[in-house]
Model the fold of this input.
Amino acid sequence: MIASPSLSVTFGDVQAARDRILPYIHRTPVLTSRLIDEQAGARVFFKCEIFQKVGAFKARGAFSRLTLLSPKERSRGVVAFSSGNHAQAVALAARELSLRATIVMPTDAPASKIAATRGYGAQVVLYDRIGGESREEIGRRIAEEEGAVLVPPFDDDAVIAGQGTLALEFLEDVPDLEIVVTPCSGGGLLSGTAVAAKGVNPEIRLWGVEPEAGDDMKRSLEAGRIIEVPLPATIADALQTTRPAERTFAIVRALTEGILTVSDLELQRAMALLASRMKLVVEPGGAAAFAALLHGKVPDAAGRRIGIVLSGGNVDPERFRTLISDLG
Amino acid sequence: MIASPSLSVTFGDVQAARDRILPYIHRTPVLTSRLIDEQAGARVFFKCEIFQKVGAFKARGAFSRLTLLSPKERSRGVVAFSSGNHAQAVALAARELSLRATIVMPTDAPASKIAATRGYGAQVVLYDRIGGESREEIGRRIAEEEGAVLVPPFDDDAVIAGQGTLALEFLEDVPDLEIVVTPCSGGGLLSGTAVAAKGVNPEIRLWGVEPEAGDDMKRSLEAGRIIEVPLPATIADALQTTRPAERTFAIVRALTEGILTVSDLELQRAMALLASRMKLVVEPGGAAAFAALLHGKVPDAAGRRIGIVLSGGNVDPERFRTLISDLG
Done:
């Protein structure tokens, strides 16, 4: 037997994160639908992070990180780069904890996410994602200039531990889950969920879901090393990363079954079904885990008790209308 | 002090209904949003009956009634007339309890509701609502011919008691509600909620909300007797009744503050805000209580803890898209 390399986030880290963030976040409900069960041929449990503060699980990671800051760090404020949900989450957490926040966002981020981030009192710096500017570089420059603490969207142990807290709640509500499926962007949600779920029950099988166009984690797992992909063209704006971090890659590699991929049309079909059957507004990336299940891509799912993370619901109304139309 | 006339449904009836229906229905979650609170200037708690079986509170009343049938009645089956949600509810309850069900539905009911009713195994008989045929007459004729038990949508004490069960849950989850607002069609939901809420806390203030075009309960209260209105032209298909029943009228008159009205545009604005802020798909009639609060129509609401019943989510996707568009 080959020993696993030690991972950067432990089950204890997730439990500690939960204690820290408890006053600030919602315990989100788990919803079910018999009609969905019949369609999926399994018992499906939806962890509704669309009802989380800022409309996405990212609030967990942001509060987990910001509650660890020293008094000196707090006085200098935080900076984050994000295509949307992480930006809102850091802005909210900063406001709640009375810190200054600067957020670097792409100009093509959904208008509602930019507006919401500003609404939380953060200073927003826009950059041109297509033009080749690196948000990491901009974020790091601002952090240096202002002495602020950079809060990465996934390449951070406290952020990963924070995201994992949703799995603790999920398994308290539905202790006998056999499979848990989450969307996968940089891997923070998937790796945090994996650490937490395996800590509760080592038999649980974890899957992550990427858009076909942005399968950097899948390719990295196949290659056994981090692979970078071009900026993916997908409707799932929340899943437009080009490469995982070393720490998320290591956890996903050690603890999950692997990565599944879905097309944009499969995401749209999942969104439409969630709207009509579950009465839920889910953003494209937030529907990725359900899209994989719905299209028969989750191995050995038949008859199982499956946890599906609906990770975010921040989609402009006009865009939502367009995406759930004309699915043939 | 004038003694109240005795009402046909008691708090004990609601408690008994709850025991009967417990195995069959969902305990629906209560959701909140700080952004909605800021916009409404109050603490708002949403009782999400959109997640109830069949997507609406009507499952409660149907199970409450059908679980009271005698063995002889069960053998003859049930018949119901409904524009939609009650139809699905009776069809589901009949299937769960192994009864035969015939449902009389208007030809212009939403396609999804007709399909769902058939999907539950009920026989659907369509009639032309605009043409002047009376669904009550058709339902009664079928009931007589087949010896089946007629299950009215609201003019029935067991149905009213069943709808009231949602208020028991609501006040367990949020004990210090000061005001509860529900949509009002024939008054079954409002009167059941009033009996239950007043039974828990006599100080709670109850309001019902009708579409402006179909304010039969409001006019009846003002006249002190039942007033019939023409078939209302409103997007709220679930609220298209022309008159309350004697028993719902009596309860609403005795236990509530009164009736508020909202326009179709106000319903649409409420639906759009529930979709963008709360990530919830709510049908037009289901959003009526929130529409009244949002537009400042609930008296003395500022700073109060207000329970809003989101009563149903059954709206065709295409219609939903249209209704949340173009609100100026």
